[in-house]
């Protein structure tokens, strides 16, 4: 396990099992400390003893909050498993969401256990994977990882769940599956993205159903989702320090480098050149 950031109220760790066998690690959840476990690759098993075990699989996230007592367990990592651990105190999280408290932070729920399991959305997965690639000086790392914790929390708690009461298309699980397949197809072809018409044909749904359902599930239009994924991929490519601006633009499907530069600046607040300079 590698410690990226560790302060009394919040911490960030990464762990990767590069062996060809299961690796077991003792772990501890402190009372009233909120724990996030993100499994990016492989799978792992939370072993709380003979009475309870729970598995976590590829691209899934667990959220634990237990105000009653400390918990100890053994985390068994499968070969090539890759995970991110994030912890934050109840007090610190309450400060962040004091104007719009999360359900479990409300006074009537503050003494209740809370557990959540969900898929890791693509935008959050990109940010988490970046933790394994980025290299920073000692002076810059503390500030960077402190900010990264806030970014991960913002992305986690802003994930919109489908509103099946208001969207008739999402009551049909077959329709939901088709829209998710369309999203996966879009991500696989990000450098040469299909048009709405092509995506609709691939998913075997009409364009209205696709656009409406996509926005309900992912909280944004198909175009906005695509641009966000392109820019996040561009940033990851820049972080490798292997590509020029024009090369990254080409890899994510921009024939016009100027258009790419303008979009990148709108997303991140600085040009690709200045972003690269900040990495050196």
- Regarding quaternary structure, what we see is single chain
End-to-end span in angstroms?
Answer: 26 Å
Largest sheet: 6 strands, antiparallel
Supply the number of helical segments.
10
**What spatial form do the alpha-carbon principal axes imply?**
globular
Work out the strand percent.
Answer: 15-25%
CATH architecture classification of the largest domain: Sandwich
What's the CATH C level of the largest domain?
Mainly Beta
Evaluate the radius of gyration: 20 Å
Widest beta sheet: strand line-up:
1-2-9-4-7-10
User: What's the mean pLDDT score?
Assistant: 83
* Secondary structure: helix percent: 40-55%
The total tally of domains equals 3
Decide which structural class fits the backbone.
alpha+beta
Briefly note the CATH topology name of the largest domain: Jelly Rolls
Order of helices and strands: EEEEEEEEEHEHHHHHHHHH
Number of strands: 10
Any descriptors?
globular; Jelly Rolls; 280 residues; 6-stranded antiparallel β-sheet; 10 helices; alpha+beta; 4-stranded antiparallel β-sheet; 10 strands; Arc Repressor Mutant, subunit A
How would you describe this protein?
The protein has ten helices and ten strands. By secondary structure, the protein is of the alpha+beta class. The protein folds into three domains: 157 residues, Jelly Rolls; 52 residues; 55 residues, Homeodomain-like (Arc Repressor Mutant, subunit A). Strands 1-2-9-4-7-10 form a six-stranded antiparallel sheet. It has a four-stranded antiparallel sheet with strand order 3-8-5-6, with no helix packed on it. The longest helix has 21 residues. It starts with a strand and ends with a helix.
């Amino acid at each position: 396990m590698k410690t990226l950031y560790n302060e009394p109220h919040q911490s960030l760790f990464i762990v990767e099992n590069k062996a060809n066998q299961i690796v077991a690690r003792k772990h501890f959840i402190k009372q009233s400390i909120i724990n996030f476990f993100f499994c990016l690759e492989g799978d792992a098993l939370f072993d709380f003893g003979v009475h309870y075990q729970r598995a976590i699989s590829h691209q899934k996230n667990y959220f634990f909050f237990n105000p009653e007592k400390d918990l100890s367990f053994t985390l068994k990592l499968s070969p090539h498993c890759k995970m991110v651990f994030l912890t934050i105190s109840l007090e610190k999280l309450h400060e962040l969401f004091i104007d719009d408290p999360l359900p479990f932070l409300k006074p009537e729920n503050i003494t209740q256990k809370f557990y959540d399991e969900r898929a890791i959305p693509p935008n959050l997965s990109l940010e988490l994977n970046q933790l394994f690639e980025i290299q920073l000086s000692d002076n810059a790392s503390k500030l960077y990882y402190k900010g990264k914790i806030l970014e991960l929390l913002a992305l986690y708690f802003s994930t919109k769940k489908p509103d099946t009461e208001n969207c008739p298309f999402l009551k049909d699980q077959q329709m939901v599956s088709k829209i998710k397949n369309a999203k996966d197809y879009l991500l696989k072809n990000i450098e040469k993205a299909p048009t709405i018409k092509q995506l609709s044909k691939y998913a075997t749904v009409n364009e209205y159903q696709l656009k409406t359902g996509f926005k309900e599930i992912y909280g944004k239009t198909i175009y906005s989702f695509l641009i966000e994924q392109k820019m996040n991929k561009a940033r990851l490519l820049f972080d490798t320090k292997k590509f020029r601006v024009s090369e990254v633009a080409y890899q994510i499907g921009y024939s016009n480098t100027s258009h790419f530069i303008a979009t990148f600046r709108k997303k991140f607040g600085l040009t690709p050149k200045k972003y690269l300079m900040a990495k050196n």
